[in-house]
Amino acid sequence: MASEKVLKFVEDIKELSVLELAELVDAIQEEFGVTAAVAAAPTGGDNGANVAAEKTEFDVVMTSFGDAKMAVIKAAKEVLGLGLKEAKTLVESAPATLKEACPKADAEALKAKLEEAGATIELK
């Protein structure tokens, strides 16, 4: 059983927003010089060699629409096939996931078009 101090810390973490949690992780990594990487377990048939699987599907996340909100709305409308109202609502809700489980080539093309319009995009 965890100590009372640790349980209090866990409860405090539960109350953080996603952005605050990301900031916490970054601060811990910087302060202690560690990374939050997960080690992959070796799979059978690879003769004990660790083979890193390349990620093939990405979530396209807009973190900010930048200074060119209208240009980003127009670009989102075009590339996502949305109506003007839906595109405006989506862009104004940044940070927002624009497309989930998108193939790498499509995700990079979407990212390029929206960044060209002024948005800040992350592939996760």
What does this structure look like?
There is one protein chain. By secondary structure, this protein is of the alpha+beta class. The protein is built from five helices and three strands. A three-stranded antiparallel sheet has the order 2-1-3, with helices on one face. The model has no long low-confidence stretch (mean pLDDT 82).
Number of helices: 5
Approximately how much helix is present in the residues? 40-55%
Basic shape: elongated
User: What would you report as the Rg, rounded to the nearest angstrom?
Assistant: 19 Å
The percent range for strand residues is 15-25%
User: How are helices and strands ordered from N to C?
Assistant: HHEHHEHE
Strand order of the largest sheet: 2-1-3
- How many E strands? 3
Largest sheet: 3 strands, antiparallel
Determine the N-to-C terminus distance: 34 Å
Provide the residue-averaged pLDDT: 82
Low-pLDDT segments: none
What structural class do the secondary elements suggest? alpha+beta
